[in-house]
Each structure stands twice: as C-alpha cells, then as structure tokens.
Amino acid sequence: MASPASTLPASTIRYRQAADAWPVRPAHRWALRLVYFVPLAALAWWALPGPEPVGPNAALAARGALVVWGDTDLAWVGEVWPPLAAGLAALLGQSGLGYVLVAAAVVAFSLQGLASTMVREGFGGWATSAVVATVMLAPPTTYLVATDLQSVLGLALLVTALAGIASFVERGSTEAGFRAGLALGVAVMVDPAAWPYALTLGLVAPFFARHAGRRGPSAQLATVAVLLFPPAAAMGFWWYLSWWFSPTQFGGLLEAGATWFPGGVGPAAQAATGAVLLSIAASPLFLVAAWARAVREPWSLIAPAIAVVGLWTSLWLGVRQPGGQTYLLLVVLYVMLLAVRRPTRRRQVVIVVTAAVQLGLIWWVSLTSGTPLTSWLLGLLG
Fold it and tell me: In 3D, which of 253, 255, 259, 218 has the Cα closest to residue 239?
C-alpha cells in the first residue's frame, strides 16, 4: 500500500524536506557547521583589538549592562530597545569573544542551510563551493562577525521571513506566510533596523495575496494580518511594558531616533543609495539572476526587491550603518530566491566564474569604498 507521502507531487515532497536535510546524517551536518564556524570565529577573534566588544557590539553591550535580572520593578525596560538583543548582550557581558562566537555560529548555521539548498537543487560541488566562498572569504562577513552581532541576527531572521514570503507567493503555502510573520516579530525585537522591512511588507501584502491566488478584501486583510500582527504585537507589548514600568518610557527608542537621517535627509538618502548600489554592483551573481528573472518571471522579484528597499530605508534612517550587510543579503537572496534550479554543466561553470569575479569585486569595494568596513579592513591589514 502506498504511503501518504508517495501520493504527493514530487515538488511538494521536495519542498517539505527540512531546510537542513543535507547532509543527511546529523553528525555530518554538525561537522559542516563546524567547518564554517571555526575559521570565521578564529579570524574575527584575531581581528579584535582587545577583549571587549567593539563597534556596534560595544553599543549593544552598553544596553545589555542596563538589564537587571531579578529586578521586580522593571524600571530598565524602556532603555533597552530592542529588548531581545539587549537580553542576549546582558548574558554575554563585556566579552568580545562571546559576541564573536554567537555571530559566527549564526553565520555557520546559515551557510549550512545555503549549502543544503544548493546541493538539493543540483548546483553541483564546484558551484556550491564557489558561492559559499563568496561569503566565507568576503571581508564583510568577518567584519560583521567581529563587530555587529545585532545585524547578523537581524539578517538571519529577515532571510527566514523572505523565504517564507516567497513560498507563500509561489506555492500558496499559508504555513510559510505564518513563518514569515513570526520571523519578523522576533526580528523587530532583535534588530532596530528590522521594522522598516515589516512596514514595507505590510504595504505590499495585498499584492502577495493576489499572486498566491487569494483574492478579495478579506484575503488581502488576512495576509496583512499574518505578516504584520507578530511584529506589531511584539513592539506593542514592549511599549506597554515601557509605559507601565519605566520612568523614561521610550528612552531607548528615542535614543535610537536621535541619530536618524545622519547628515540630513537628503545626504542620508544619497549615502544609502550609494551604499546599496555599490553592493549590488559587487554582486554579479545577484545581478545576472535578477535580470533573468525580470525577463521570465518579473513577479518573482517581489521578495528580493522588498529586501533591498528595506535595507536602503534602514541605512537612510540611520538605524543601521553600512558594513557589508547588503552584500551578504544579496548572496543569500540569490541562492534562496533567484538562482536557476538544476543548472546545466555550462551554467555551473558560469556560476563558478561569476563567483570568482564577485569575490574579487567585493574585496576591491571593501578596500576603496570609504565606509567603516574600509577603515576596519585597512587597519587590520596594517
């Protein structure tokens, strides 16, 4: 007698596989994660100038120091936005190594997931290794692991949300839509740059519903609720706690807002546009795949476009500083949403060559763009 799974279409069976189904054995999966984790953690730790956290991690550690575990009056709640990141920082304390280890672990898990996707989709060993190398050997990766745990966590959650939205649009998976909303709900409590993504997703949610075959006002309203309710509820709950317990109410949020639009609205927009365009120009894998999709399936660019617009907005507002986040996001979007599946042998060769060009471009951009990443990299190289 045939099993229930055997009666499902092959595409459905493949989609329902766990994201970490490759390697098949759990021990091999952990070994692969360790292969990614060890060099990233070692290099980032070596790059630290001292034992304390540096860069954005230093600001995160300062917020974490405000958390008082066991304090029943919760007066510190209003000062620690976003609270989940501050809670993690409170556990890590002033250990720069601790921040590096957590960030490297997040990147290692994400890379194993990307490699799993490429192997299952038939990229081949050389193409898979080449794309992974564009992350492992790129200066932005080491920079973020060494200095910006908050951005690493936010990007990982954002990619989870965008993958869920893509599955909702392409396959009509309601479960994937809920997963996207929950990922956004956690993201706004981790990364102050996550809420522009949530707002952008809310604005275009009716478009998702139409492409997923859910038409009518009720379906569109339900889609908006699925995507926006988790982040709105998370932020609303934190605001309520701040109002109820903290004498400064929204001190942490207001402090973050004090740095909005660095240099002014116009200059901040120009700087954000330049940073995003520079990263896109240094990502030929993303450019070639996006162009092919635009010709054949333009609607499939919805999720990548949202990611780019949301990242531009966060840079414009000043809630995130340019440090290579755009580059890493583009690599992940290429693998998960844009790359051709089951590429031919010739296309695999093109992927390998393009990845090598991309790695050279990102090194050149990192050394010459004049961003904090450039200063950090030049200081590291002496």
Answer: 253
Backbone angles phi, psi at 158, to 5 degrees: -65, -45
Phi-psi category of 318—alpha, beta or left, where left has phi over 0 and alpha has psi -120 to 50? left
Query: What distance, in Å, lies between the first and last C-alpha atoms of the chain?
Result: 68
Instruction: Classify the phi-psi angles of 380: left when phi > 0, otherwise alpha if psi is within -120 to 50, otherwise beta.
Output: alpha
Residues in contact with 59: Cβ distance below 8 Å, sequence separation at least 6, in sequence order: none
Greatest Cα-to-Cα distance within the chain, rounded to the nearest angstrom = 69
Rounded Cα distance, 244 and 324, in Å: 38
Place of tokens 């699925």: 226
* Alpha-helical regions (H) of the chain: 10-15, 26-47, 56-64, 83-92, 96-120, 125-136, 139-147, 149-171, 174-187, 195-211, 217-245, 251-257, 265-281, 284-296, 302-317, 325-333, 345-368, 372-381
**Both tokens assigned to 306:** 């949202």
**What is the rounded CA–CA span in Å between residue 374 and residue 143?**
10
Give the span between the Cα atoms of 310 and 206, in whole angstroms. Answer: 18
What SS3 class is residue 1?
A: coil
* Nearest-angstrom CA–CA distance, 23 and 33: 10
- Measured in whole angstroms, the distance separating CA 279 from the mean position of its chain's CA atoms is 15
pLDDT tens track, the chain, 382 positions? 444 443 434 443 444 444 446 888 889 999 999 999 999 999 999 999 889 999 999 999 999 998 988 777 777 887 888 889 999 999 999 999 999 999 999 999 999 989 998 998 899 999 999 999 999 999 999 999 999 999 999 989 988 887 887 777 767 777 888 888 899 999 999 988 888 878 777 777 777 666 666 666 676 777 778 888 899 898 888 888 888 887 766 666 666 555 678 888 899 999 999 989 999 999 999 999 999 899 888 877 887 888 888 888 888 888 777 788 889 999 998 998 889 889 999 999 999 999 999 999 999 999 998 888 999 999 888 7
- From 305, 293, 358, select the one nearest 327 (Cα to Cα): 358
Measured N-to-C along each axis, helices 372-381 and 345-368 cross at an angle, to the nearest 10 degrees, of 90
Residues in the chain: 382
- What is residue 79's DSSP assignment? G
